[in-house]
Prior knowledge:
By secondary structure, this protein is an alpha+beta fold. The protein has helices spanning 2-29, 99-134, 140-172, 218-224, 352-356; strands spanning 42-44, 46-49, 53-62, 65-69, 74-79, 86-87, 92-96, 175-177, 182-187, 194-195, 200-205, 210-217, 231-233, 241-242, 246-249, 259-265, 277-283, 294-299, 304-306, 309-315, 321-325, 327-332, 335-340, 347-349.
Amino acid sequence: MPAARSVRRGLQAVVIVAAAVAAASARSRAPAPADAPPAIASAAVAAQGGSGSTAYEGVVEALRQTVVAAQVPGAVVALQVRAGDKVQAGQVLMRIDARAADQTAAAGAAQARAARAALEAASREFKRQQQLFAQSFISQAALDRADAQFKTAQAEASAQLANAGAARTQSDLYVVKAPYGGVVASVSVVLGDMALPGRPLLTLYDPAALRVAAAIPQAAVANWGGAPAPRAEIPGTAAGWVRPVKVQLLPTVDVASQTLELRLDLPADTDAAPGMFARAWLPGSGAGTGAGEARLFVPSQALVRRSELAAVYVLGRDGKPMLRQVRPGRSVGDQVEILSGVAAGERVALDPQAAARIR
């Protein structure tokens, strides 16, 4: 019996040791707690009091922009301007092959000279017939025939002179001249191209007559009331902010978008060009792309630009950065205004590259 009890005690000790070993092994196999995301430099989205104005996106347009087209057919034999050149009113821009037109004009001029000579001869003959009729040497019928011949020669001379003038005018159309002083925006042909009536040759605009055109919601126009005058912002220019010399709000409303077109005429010395992005800042309206009560700003280094995408990395509650698309506005120093996409108080990563590596 003592031997049996000792055996039982040995088995119990073995079981206890095995249980302890199993528990330690289970603890070693248990997953380790998730590591907290590494700390990353961030900044809060700052809300600043607005200026009481709302921005509406627009574009710079030229009040005078002309597509110069060909009026006669022919090959382009001389091209004397390039895109970006400044030209004066009446300056020759290009020449079209006018050899056939010149020959036609020369023939018309010769026919006009012949008609004038015939008219002079008919005039002298009519005067002689009048003298003979006064001396009763010829009849009234002979005088009438001389009068009819004179009037016929007179009509033929007028017709030939008109034909010669038309041929000369047609010949002048082969020389393309600038209708006014301006800048050549684009040239649509090269030497040797065939010019046809109605085919565009080049585009010309007047840099001293530009405006900003923006679509304004109907509700914003009602809140504005017409005063004070709006301002224009043209990013990328030396002036930046421009006070328009004239403000025009078109009375018609677009059926699809329910907006009205606002036109802000720019001063003559504005260093802008047609097609540039611009904003019209409308005082006293609160329905635009930027709120007039508060404006949100983030550090410029936090903004990520990838082709057409603008985004920031917003830190979540767990500290992990998440890429979020935003709509940036104008830059003020080292800050960028965010028109939509973030809320005041949210934190954005200051190092987008480091934030992109955190998963």
